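[Automated response] Your request has been received and processed.

Submitted sequence:
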Amino acid sequence: MRPFFLCLVIFALYALNTSAQPLAAYVDIQNQVMVWDRGYIHKIDFMPPTSMKVGRTAVPYLDNSRSFKIYYNGSVSELNMGFTNAYFVTDNLVVYLNQKSLNVFDRGVNKNIAGVCDQYFVGDSLVLFLDSYKSEYRAYYNGQTYTIESYIPDSTLSHMKVAANVIAFDNFANQFKIFYQGKLISQEDYPVYGFGAGRNTVAYVDVDHKFKIFHSGQTYVLEDYAPSSYKVGDNMVAYVSGDGYFKVFYGDSVRTIGFMSPTYQVGDNIMAYKDPGGMLKVFYKGALTEMENYYPTGITIQYNSLAYVNTNGTLRLFTEGEAYDVTNADLTHWSLNYDVITYQIGEGIFKVFYKGTEY
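Generated structure:
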């Protein structure tokens, strides 16, 4: 293994949203922490970090002395010196734990949301946590906290899913509930047989074995019988119905792809599957694209993108409906983060590929 401090560059990037350019963070050959933000390189630290993570809007890291710092909007803030024992970053939030004190860095504002927290789950824009002082489950969302469950018996909630902006769970009274856009919705009076969650979307099998989808505040009964399998993404659910048809729920409607039970995977806005002829096909925002005449191993899906190395050794990227051959060089390493590919050639050549442009 090559020495970390001399030659390992750590890249983590994210795709553009409506107001932000991609970020990249790495340690250069001089052990300095560099951030690429909106086309400019910023030197943010002179020593390699103990750890570093990158989200859509921020770069949190523990510096060489384990002080917790966050790069955000062109500058670095030091939040504490040596107290942070865990931290996570998402599209919009940095969530960190100082001993048992749970804190959120949200759009440049730092907030303590629980003095003592024994359990927490992080989504892109929300946090579900057990406030041990108040003995209740609470959710942080859009700058506010909401009570989710105020009755806490000896056990904790065991059946829950926290997605980008949705919480789904069976509560202690065996009711199925959904927290969405600041509202706690009593979805079913009985526990469900299984459920999955993605952005704006929850799929589940109810007590009568009907397959239902909650999407953007509306509930749809898709099938009268439970599917043989299903997977949930952002605003999308792919499933094989009880009678053997492969279908996709997207845009408030169901599309039948065919009578098959394929290998398939769902991540964020992308669904990839192996058709009966063995081909790799990609479903993205209602359209199907043929990518390969075989189904590759090692497929990575994030947000609007899918990437893999094909049998010819070419790193291929499908992003926002377009396919690209990124490089056919011998790669030391590659990764896909927030629609951006980073890859390493040899000992010290590092490249970034985003929307058809190499940096």
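Summary generated for your ticket: The first strand starts at residue 23 and ends at 27. Residues 1-19 have pLDDT under 50 and may be disordered.
If you did not submit this request, please reply to this message.
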